[in-house]
Design brief:
heterodimer; A: two-stranded antiparallel sheet; B: five-stranded mixed β-sheet; 5 helices
Chain lengths: ~600, ~140
């Protein structure tokens, strides 16, 4: 029954992912991305539901199965609601493919990627079989707790007695519950289960980074991301060592990838990638305590983005709609002439002043005679159809035939407007509202965090960091300047430990210095949110080390590397998303070409 | 051109770095030998403490007393492996319980144990013994 429940949980996650991304990820090539995301989220859902069932009904496998079926039914209803049109799906297809690639170069890159992936798998298997119980934290915390749970027939009480001579009672239960459930299902406590879970999460992290980059940008960035990720040797080592930092890193990376995808979404639906990002961030808190801070950091980043966007928008006096002041979110308006007078539309002249393009698309355009209903689809189409203008970082010339195309699109809007006969004025402009992303993120995050808090209320011993004794001494530690220097130096030195990280950090910095940056315009908000989130998380780690009750040097030596491992996949994703690659077209250029070709 | 050279250099260096990392680790065949013979340090200790399960009750608190010869780190590892092996029994190193595991130590070397009345005693060899004391 446990295996069926786990399968249902993964199916549930797939239905949810399909419901949210389906309209956008219609391409068959994105099927692997959905599968990897669903497997990760499904594992999290399974352990969450298992915990809730044990908490409320005790360790009953029948109730566990029924709970999973009920959850699947609920998510299935959501899916049907999505596709039955109750909540309008977005037809936006936001995953362009770059085709301007050197085929020989691509083959060489793919071959090198496969070599790196094979070496990484080889290394992980070697690490696992040389220490099958895992490294210190794995056997002494995660697998030990899994044994407690499995040997008591999925009863949690034994694992949280105050007499247990360890100080990690508040560690979340994702990994122990997943492992112990599989042990109970198999009827044996084989070390292969935690080993396979660990290597599976490592491979899943690599997949989510690569497939996320492939979905948002192009295959070259995806392959580069995969190669960079496995070059960080300690990511592979701690992954195969069965530390929970890699599963936590998987959820953080998934969250950052989904926020970047959300940046591409142009609808105001609640079921948007930010919802899945919130779920992933919440599940990271169910894997490790650091996840609570991650959810907060990402939420703060989104909130800051929302506030900044609010300052950069203004309300149209005619239509009452909100518009972006900058052209960052702007959608090229459909000229009024193309609807009414059927004249040749005005071509926006774009000039660059101080690094910021300005063009006629900044001018508010209202077409009060056109209905509301048409705007979602057609404004988005217009945007892509004219992606040569607002989405490219350099001044461009309008291609021949584009005016005719725009006129055609305008007629399309006009025609649909006549057919629908809506009394509402058309909104041609869609400023991307970060508040919607924040709302979606919070909707995904909060339910999971509520369960995590329930766990901590029910079972937790004192957390060493937040207990009153520590907080009362934190003041004196904060005032100690030598701690700042020590922590700062450790932070700066850590990525350059060649034995642990290989040469990846200096190589990445050197390449970025030579090549520069080139972030696709359509995901700049997502990339900025990700970068800000990672920065806030690092700041949070800094504060944790500042007030830690443990000897600082020892704590830095034992924890800092694993904290960097947690952030590593997200950092690689953001690096590959923003770094400039030689030759070829950047994603927005490709997006424009893709749209024009269609 | 410069960017392209830098790009391919980055890729090649990363793959070489991964290969170097893989090569610097013990070979897969020797690791498999360790795995198949349970010769890693945790498996060895697990087998050692696994012998006590026949004497101990299925649950409850057990006191673990390490030998004085062990250094601080080794005591910590052995205590944790005892907990890992004997779960769901709760192992404590500072609370005198009815059942006591003596790991390379004599009863006389522990003051509270020396003062206790012994009900049962199992000598499991290799310096490992299980004592049931009168806890009243």
């Amino acid at each position: 029954m446990i295996a069926i429940s786990l399968a249902i949980a993964v199916g549930l996650a797939y239905v949810l992912v399909l419901g949210v991304l389906g309209a956008r990820c219609g391409e068959r090539s994105n099927f692997p991305f959905r599968c990897v995301l669903s497997a990760g989220l499904g594992g999290g859902f399974f352990s969450l539901l298992t915990f809730l069932v044990i908490l409320l009904w005790g360790p009953s496998q029948v109730v566990l199965l029924l709970a999973h079926v009920a959850a699947l039914a609920a998510v299935g209803a959501l899916w049907l609601r999505r596709f039955a049109g109750v909540e309008s799906p977005s037809p936006v297809e936001f995953m362009p493919r770059t085709t301007r690639e050197d085929p020989a170069g691509s083959k060489i890159l793919l071959a090198l990627f496969l070599v790196a992936a094979f070496l990484a798998l080889w290394y992980q298997i070697t690490v696992f079989v040389s220490a099958p119980h895992g490294q210190w934290d794995a056997w002494s915390i995660w697998n030990c707790r899994a044994r407690f749970i499995a040997r008591t027939g999925l009863d949690l009480r034994g694992a949280f007695t105050e007499f247990l001579g360890v100080n990690d009672l508040d560690y979340p239960l994702h990994v122990p519950l997943l492992v112990s459930s599989l042990w109970v299902q198999l009827g044996t406590e084989t070390v292969l289960v935690p080993g396979l879970v660990a290597i599976g999460y490592s491979a899943g992290t690599m997949a989510i980074v690569c497939l996320g980059l492939a979905a948002i940008t192009d295959v070259r960035r995806a392959l580069l991301g995969g190669i960079l990720l496995v070059t960080g040797a300690c990511f592979l080592y701690w992954g195969a060592g069965q530390y929970a930092d890699v599963p936590a890193g998987f959820y953080l990376a998934a969250s950052i990838v989904l926020l970047a995808l959300d940046d591409c979404a142009e609808d105001s639906s609640t079921l948007r990638p930010a919802l899945l990002a919130g779920l992933a961030a919440g599940l990271s808190a169910w894997v490790k305590n650091e996840g609570m801070m991650w959810g907060l950091a990402i939420g703060m980043s989104l909130g800051l983005g929302a506030v900044l966007q609010g300052r950069n928008t203004r309300t149209d006096p005619h239509t009452g709609e909100t518009r972006a002041n900058s052209n960052d979110d702007a959608v090229l308006p459909l000229p009024e002439e193309s609807f009414g007078d059927q004249r040749e539309p005005q071509v926006p002249e774009i000039s660059r002043e101080g690094g910021v393009e300005k063009g006629s698309f900044e001018t508010p355009v209202s077409a009060p005679h056109l209905p509301e209903k048409t705007h979602a689809c057609e404004a988005g189409t217009a945007n892509r159809g004219n992606a040569t203008s607002p989405t490219v970082g350099t001044p461009v010339r309008r291609p021949a035939g584009a005016a005719m195309q725009q006129k055609f699109l305008g007629i399309g809007v006009w025609g649909k407007g006549l057919l629908s006969r809506s009394p509402f004025p058309q909104k041609l402009h869609y400023p991307r509202n970060r508040f919607l992303a924040l709302r979606g993120f919070a909707l995904g995050l909060v339910p999971v965090v509520v369960v995590v808090i329930a766990f901590k209320r029910c079972f937790q011993g004192n957390n060493y960091l937040t207990c009153w004794e520590n907080l009362s001494l934190a003041g004196s530690r904060i005032l100690d300047s030598s701690r700042y220097w020590e922590i700062g130096a450790a932070f700066l030195k850590e990525p350059f430990h060649v034995h642990d990280w290989g040469l990846v950090a200096p190589l990445m910095i050197l390449y970025a210095c030579i090549s520069g940056w080139d972030c696709p315009r359509r995901v700049r908000h997502g990339a900025a949110t990700g970068l800000l989130s990672v920065s806030l998380i690092l700041a949070g780690y800094f504060i944790v080390f500042l007030i830690t009750p443990f000897p600082l040097t020892w704590h830095l030596e034992t924890a800092l590397q694993r904290l960097f491992v947690q952030l590593w996949p997200a950092c690689v994703f953001l690096y590959c998303l923003t770094v400039r690659l030689p030759g070829g077209a950047s994603a927005p250029q490709a997006a424009g070409d893709h749209a024009l070709a269609r | 051109m410069t960017r392209s050279v830098a790009y391919w250099t980055l890729i090649a260096a990363c793959v070489l770095s991964t290969a170097w990392t893989t090569g610097s680790f013990p070979s897969l065949s020797s690791a498999f030998e360790t795995y198949l013979s349970d010769a890693d340090s945790i498996s060895k200790l697990e087998r050692r403490f696994g012998r006590t399960t026949a004497c101990l009750p299925a649950e409850g608190m057990i006191t673990y007393v390490p030998g004085a010869a062990f250094n601080h780190d080794e005591k910590g590892v052995r205590f944790r492996v005892a907990q890992y092996t004997l779960a769901p029994r709760v192992i404590s190193d500072d609370r005198p319980a009815e059942w006591v595991i003596c790991d390379s130590c004599s009863r006389a070397s522990v003051q509270w144990l020396a003062a206790s009345r012994i009900v049962e005693r199992y000598d499991l060899g290799s310096g490992l013994s299980v004592i049931r004391r009168d806890s009243r």
